Amino acid sequence: MVRIKSISKWQGILITIFIGLFIFLTGNEHVEAEQTVNRMKITINLDKNGTAFISENWNVSADEGSEIYKTLKLEGPQQLGNYSVSIDGKPMKRTSNWNPDASKKAKAGRYGQNGNELNWGITKYGTHNYNIKYAISNFVEQTKTKQMINWTFLEHDVEISPHDIAIRIQDQNHKFSKDNGYGIWGFGFDGQTQFNKRGQIDVNNSKALNDDNYVKILMEIPKGTYKTSYHLNKSFDSVVKDAFKGSDFNYQDYKSGKNIKNDLLDRILWVVIGALSLIGILFVIWLVLGIRNYSRYYPRMKKLQKQNEGQYSRQITANNIFELYTILSFIPGNRQKQDNNFLTAALLQLVKQGNIKQETVKEKSHFVLLQQPEKDAPEPLQALYTVLYRVEKDNVVTESALSKYLSHDSNWQELTYEFSDYSYAYCMKYSLVESSDDALKTRNKKDRKAIRWAKWLLNDNHQLTEEGIKIRTQIVQLKNYLEEFSLLNERNIKEVSLWDDYMLAAAALGILDKVEEQLNKVYPEYAQESVYYNTSDHPFNYTANFSSHVAYSSTGGGGSTSSGGGGSSGGSSGGGGFR
Length: 579
Prior knowledge:
Number of helices: 18
Oligomer: single chain
Structural class: alpha+beta
C-alpha cells in the first residue's frame, strides 16, 4: 500500500517556498460552506468623546436561511446609534419591528433590530458583501488611572466566526504609538497586533479562526485623552492583571514596560533573519534551478495540455477512473483538489450503480442510501458507502452530517487512502510506477536530476515509469477531448452509457461543468436518458457542490496575540449567527 508520508517542519517550510515560487514562475479555489463568514474587516474611528464609529465588512457565503444577526453587549452608559446595513454596496431598508420568524422574502433587502441583536436579511443566496455600520457612545472607558478600550469583537463558539479577521482602530486627531503612551493586546486567537506608520492600530489573525477562538482587544490610552462619560472604579493595572490570567502575556513584563509578548525571542529572531538573508537568497536561486528540473519531468496540467494541443483520446485507459488516481497525483497543482474531484466521481458512480440516489429539497442536495455496492466493486466505492452508512439518519445523508464526520483528519485520510491504495496497486501491477531508486538506475542524466528533485519535493519514493508517462499523456488527451468535443465532428456519438462514463472522468478531472454545458448542446436528449437525472434536474452541479462543501470542512505594544486570557469585563459586539 502507498501512503503520502508525513513531512517534517523544515520540509513543510521548503515545500511552501516551492509552491509560492512555482506559482510565481509558471503562472488557484475556495470552496464555501453552506453558511460561512469568509472574511470580516472591522474599522473603528474614534471621536473626541470616545464614541466609536464602527464599519464592518463581511464576506458571506450562504445557500440557506433567511437572515444574519450579530449581538451587542453594551456596558454602563454605552448606547447604539447610526445603525445601517448595505449588501454589495446597495443600502438596505430599515424595518422598525424586526420579526426573526418572518420569511426570507419578507426580510430580503431589509435590516432591523431585535432586542440586543442587529439583524439583516440574507436577501440573495451565494457569496455577497455586507457592510454593517453603527456607533457606540462611550466606547472608551476611563479607569482610575488611564483610559482604555476593552472590547470583544468576536465571541467564541458562534456561527459567524470568520476564517479571517482584520481590525483597524484609528483617530485622525491622535497618533497611536507606544512612545505616545498607548498599548495594545489581543486575546483568544493566533495573530498580530501592531502600531502602523500612520499611527493606527492593526489587528490580524495568522491562523484560520475556528469555533474555539474569540477576538478580544485591550487598548491602553493615556488619561484624559477622550471626554468619555464611562468611568470605572478600578485601576487600569487591575484590568490588565485580570486580562493576563490564562494568557501568554506576563504581567511583570507589562509592569516593567514591555508590551510585546516574547520580546527577547522576537529580537533574536530578527538577528537570525538578518544573518541568514544572504544564505536565503542563494538558497532560493538553488531552489529555482531545481524546480525547473522538476517541472520538466512533471509539468503542470496546463503545460501538458499545451504540449498535446490538438491531440485527443476517447479512451479511459483503465478499467475505471479510480485506477488513475495515482497517475493524476503526479501532476503538480493537482493534489490539492484531486480528493474533492474523486469524491464527486465516487458519489456519481454510486448513483450510476443504484447504490444511492440524489434528492434536492429547497435547492439543498442530499443522498439516500439504497443498497450496498457489490463485493467486486472498487474498494474506494465500498469505503465511501461505509462512510455514508455511518452518518445516515433514516437512510438520508446530509452535507452537514458528512462534513462533520470528515472534518476529523483521521476520517478524511482513511477515506482518501482507499483511493490512493487502490490506484497504487493497479499502477504497480501494470508497471506504471516504480521506486525512485529503480528509476535513478535506468534513466538518463537529465531525468535523474528531475527524479531526485521530485523525490525530495514530493516527499514520495515513487516515480512514474515510461509507461506511466504514456498513460498520463492519454489522460491529458482525454481531457482535451472532453473540453473540446463540441467543436469536433463528434455529434453522432450518442451512446448514453459511454457518456455516463465520460462524466465520471470529467468529475475526476474537475471539468464537470464544462462537459455538461457542451453535452447539452450536442446531445440534449442525454438528460432524459441518463441514470444520473432520474431523481435530480441538476445532478452534476449539485453533486460537485456537495463534495466541495464536504471537502472544505474536512483550514501589547504590538506583536503576537494570546490564544487565551482577556478577562471577563468589557463590552462585546461579537455574538451572532444565521437563521
